[in-house]
């Protein structure tokens, strides 16, 4: 790459905030010989524009030898982020390619058929007369031949080893903070009725260790191969058979990777196997002489450095990884298999006034599993008071789990404010979110897992509540394994990362403003425990945290808008009257060293 090109490659007509200094620092980091540069850039710093500038430094075809890698990849784990890139005129030369299922066939009788189920994949030897106009193959051809190809991280990893998307000179990963977790998720193997097409035909034993899991994986892979070959032998397939064939091929690849990695003495990957109880029908159908019946299996990798090496690090010469929440450079490098000595960290300053992004302490107790039933009603009452405090402003409630969401919705309905509350389920979350964003008025949205990839600028949302510290589920075997190994710093750092991401949902520009209310006292404990990994700009927010003066509990006022008090804290943009509505508080000291961290965070419902 040529780092000196970074300024001419910047796509905007002018710089905003600290972008010019950020480009200078990134250029110098690459010029110093670093193969990887981590760019810690907070919300509003224009990460996508910085990413485009870095991609523009890639070696060009006219500068390269035939064997040299040229061009760049832009990738992000978040579909919404890729959508934003595709819609941004300043990033028009990032040529976006998505998976086949995102495109529809253009043949006259197949207009509603996804390309991954079109005749070209259903019929052996099918010669498509319009393949040159097929939206998927057209986008793929353009992306593979242009300087910058843009795709989701899932598609990027799936195309590892592809003849179409070969190694490039520069790879830019946006929203890279969860790279290790995403890799673990992609490399996880689920064997159960929803993921194995012939599950009901399988004899599933009790798997009592990794060796037994490997043997069983080999057996299932062989069955998958036979069934796939039977389908491939047919002249044509139905759409359902195509889905089965493709899933079988995926399973074969997943299982063979697991077996190969497990048997590689040089692999750093640690594998864990979880097995659920068998269904009552399967257990009842077992003959007395059969081995004990087992249930669905989940085979999980930890720190899958080898997987990332193949799917990411082998795909480029130099890398820029951008995020607001890469909190600890050395820890991040260890997780993703990078040598910290070849990695530089560039910090981009936050340009949003701290008074426009206040944190408020409205804690009502702990939301741990054993204290939740007592704390949740108190939080529900606090939400009502916040609805009174923000009578004509939309609010977002981060419920963390569907069980908490359901309980809060019940309580708020019982209090008589249900008409101002919206919820969503697992299947309709995106549609419900868009309806709420498009709505007028001041409805409150009870959300689950919306701490990231959500742009609520301006009046889309002026206040939000974190109902529960977003600790990872200690019932997950990977989490439990790390905690048994004493990795509490990782645990609290991961929680802090999610909190910081959540705080950025409602303040999206220097002149935007929005309040974040903390309802779970475990959040304050997390701030203390993860203080050394806290970015300076967020530490300032934490140090300024105060307790708001809320109106007395009156559900009718939450609906009518007659709060009887001063307007909401987020609505005071300049902060000139905020001191009249809040009283300062000192940060609480963390739990004593003799307390058990697990007692503070134990959670098993995700």
A few lines on this structure:
The chain is an alpha/beta fold. It contains 22 helices and 18 strands. The strands form 4 sheets. A 7-stranded parallel beta sheet has the order 3-4-2-5-9-1-10, sandwiched between helices.
Strand order of the largest sheet: 3-4-2-5-9-1-10
| CATH topology group of the largest domain | Rossmann fold
Morphology call: globular
- State the helix count: 22
Question: Any overview of this molecule?
Answer:
GO terms for molecular function: ATP binding; DNA binding; DNA helicase activity; hydrolase activity, acting on acid anhydrides, in phosphorus-containing anhydrides. InterPro entries: ATP-dep_Helicase_C (IPR006555), DinG/Rad3-like (IPR045028), Helicase_ATP-bd (IPR014001), P-loop_NTPase (IPR027417), RAD3-like_helicase_DEAD (IPR010614). Keywords: ATP-binding, DNA-binding, Helicase, Hydrolase, Nucleotide-binding. With 606 residues, the chain is of the alpha/beta class. It folds into 3 domains: 217 residues, 3-Layer(aba) Sandwich (Rossmann fold), CATH 3.40.50.300; 102 residues, no CATH class; 205 residues, Rossmann fold. The protein is 37% helix and 13% strand. It is built from 22 helices and 18 strands. The strands form 4 sheets. The protein has a 7-stranded parallel sheet, with helices on both faces. α15 links the parallel β13 and β14. α8 runs antiparallel to α9, α13 packs across α14 and α17 packs across α18. The longest helix has 24 residues. About 5% of the residues have low confidence.
């Amino acid at each position: 790459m040529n780092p000196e090109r970074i300024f001419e490659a910047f796509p905007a007509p002018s710089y905003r905030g600290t972008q010019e200094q950020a480009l200078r620092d990134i250029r110098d980091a690459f010029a110093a010989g670093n193969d990887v540069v981590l760019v810690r850039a907070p919300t509003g710093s224009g990460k996508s524009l910085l990413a485009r500038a870095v991609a523009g430094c890639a070696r060009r075809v006219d500068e390269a030898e035939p064997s040299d890698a040229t061009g760049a990849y832009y990738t992000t784990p978040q579909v919404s982020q890729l959508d934003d890139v595709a819609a941004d005129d300043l990033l028009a030369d990032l040529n976006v390619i998505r998976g086949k299922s995102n495109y529809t066939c253009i043949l006259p009788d197949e207009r509603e058929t996804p390309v991954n189920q079109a005749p070209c994949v259903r019929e052996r030897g099918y010669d498509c007369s319009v393949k040159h106009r097929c939206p998927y193959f057209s986008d793929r051809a353009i992306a593979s031949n242009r300087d910058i190809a843009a795709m989701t991280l899932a598609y990027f990893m799936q195309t590892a080893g592809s003849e179409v998307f070969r190694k490039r000179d520069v790879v830019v990963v946006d929203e890279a903070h969860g790279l290790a977790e995403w890799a673990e998720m992609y490399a996880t193997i689920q064997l159960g009725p929803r993921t194995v097409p012939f599950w009901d035909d399988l004899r599933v034993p009790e798997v009592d260790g990794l060796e037994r899991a490997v043997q069983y994986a080999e057996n299932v892979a062989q069955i998958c191969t036979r069934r796939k070959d039977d389908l491939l032998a047919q002249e044509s397939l139905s759409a359902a058979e195509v889905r089965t064939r493709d899933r079988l091929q995926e399973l074969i690849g997943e299982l063979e990777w697991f077996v190969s990695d497990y048997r590689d003495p040089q692999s750093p990957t640690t594998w864990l196997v979880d097995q659920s109880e068998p269904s009552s029908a399967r257990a009842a159908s077992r003959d007395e002489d059969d081995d004990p019946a087992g249930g669905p299996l989940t085979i999980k990798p930890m720190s899958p450095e080898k997987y990332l090496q193949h799917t990411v690090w082998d795909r480029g010469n130099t890398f820029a990884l951008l995020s607001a929440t890469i909190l600890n450079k050395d820890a991040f490098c260890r997780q993703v298999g990078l040598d910290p000595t070849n990695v530089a960290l560039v910090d981009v300053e936050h340009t949003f006034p701290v008074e426009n992004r206040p944190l408020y302490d409205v804690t009502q107790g702990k939301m741990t599993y054993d204290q939740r039933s007592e704390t949740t009603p108190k939080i529900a009452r606090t939400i009502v008071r916040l609805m009174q405090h923000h009578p004509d402003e939309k609010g977002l409630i981060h419920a963390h789990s569907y069980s908490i969401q359901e309980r809060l919705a019940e309580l708020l309905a019982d209090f008589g404010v249900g008409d101002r509350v919206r919820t969503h389920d697992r299947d309709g979350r995106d549609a419900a979110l868009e309806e709420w964003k498009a709505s007028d008025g001041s409805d409150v949205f009870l959300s689950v897992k919306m701490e990231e990839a959500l742009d609520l600028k301006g009046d889309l949302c002026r206040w939000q509540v974190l109902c529960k510290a977003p600790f990872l589920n200690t019932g997950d075997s990977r989490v439990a394994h790390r905690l048994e190994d004493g990795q509490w710093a990782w645990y609290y750092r991961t929680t802090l990362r999610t909190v910081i991401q959540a705080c950025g949902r409602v303040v999206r520009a220097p002149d935007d403003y929005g309040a974040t209310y903390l309802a779970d006292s475990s959040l304050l404990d997390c701030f203390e425990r993860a203080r050394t990994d806290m970015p300076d700009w967020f530490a300032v927010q934490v140090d300024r945290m105060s307790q708001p003066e809320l109106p007395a509990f009156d559900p009718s006022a939450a609906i009518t808008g007659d709060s009887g008090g001063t307007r909401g804290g987020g609505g005071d943009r300049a902060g000139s009257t905020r001191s009249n509505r809040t009283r300062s508080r000192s940060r609480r000291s963390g739990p004593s060293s003799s307390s058990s961290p697990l007692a503070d965070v134990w959670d098993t419902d995700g």
